[in-house]
Write a structure and sequence with these properties.
There is one protein chain. The protein is mostly beta strands. The protein has one domain: Jelly Rolls. Strand 7 and strand 8 form a beta hairpin. The strands form two sheets. Strands 1, 3, 4, 6, 9, 10 and 12 form a seven-stranded mixed beta sheet that branches. Strands 2-5-11-7-8 form a five-stranded antiparallel beta sheet, with no helix packed on it. It is built from no helices and twelve strands. The protein is elongated, with a radius of gyration of 14 Å.
């Protein structure tokens, strides 16, 4: 089985999740795994252009309300992200940094799954004025689901 590049992780876990907990990408191709200082030693790197997006399906164990958090990377060539969950606005995230760093978790909000899953859409349409290079890249490390 190929190594998944994006996983949803339960709150307060000290071990990797079971395969049923892995996220699944549904959107545009062009993403790749990058090893480094990430939770599972890899991130989802999207080399996009203005308007690029991905949709990620996160399975829900039950229909319970959960708070979703996302960990991402910041870098000199990363853009500003617009994030929705199940079609509802969740957060904006400026992924620019003058060096490559792992960002603090971003709280996306509290949501109820639809049809047994959460659909997280991440789109890049803007850039920070200080962004250099391609300007519309972004990197996602993991998602965390917690009881509210």
């Amino acid at each position: 089985m190929a190594r998944p590049y994006l996983r949803s992780i339960p709150a307060a876990t000290s071990s990797p999740p079971r395969p049923a907990d892995f996220g699944k990408t549904l959107g545009k191709p062009g993403a790749r795994v990058v090893s480094g200082f990430f939770y599972f030693d890899a991130q989802l790197l999207v080399r996009g252009s203005k308007g690029s997006f991905i949709e990620i399906e996160i399975p829900a164990a039950n229909g319970a309300l959960r708070q979703l958090r996302m960990a991402a990377t910041k870098a000199p060539d990363f853009g500003i992200l617009s994030i929705t969950v199940n079609g509802k606005a969740a957060a904006a995230f400026d992924a620019y940094s003058s060096s490559v760093v792992h960002a603090d978790e971003v709280t996306l909000g509290t949501f109820t799954p639809v049809d047994g899953k959460y659909i997280v859409k991440i789109e890049v349409n803007e850039t920070n004025a200080a962004t250099t290079g391609p300007r519309y890249y972004f990197g996602i490390d993991y998602f965390r689901l917690e009881k509210p």
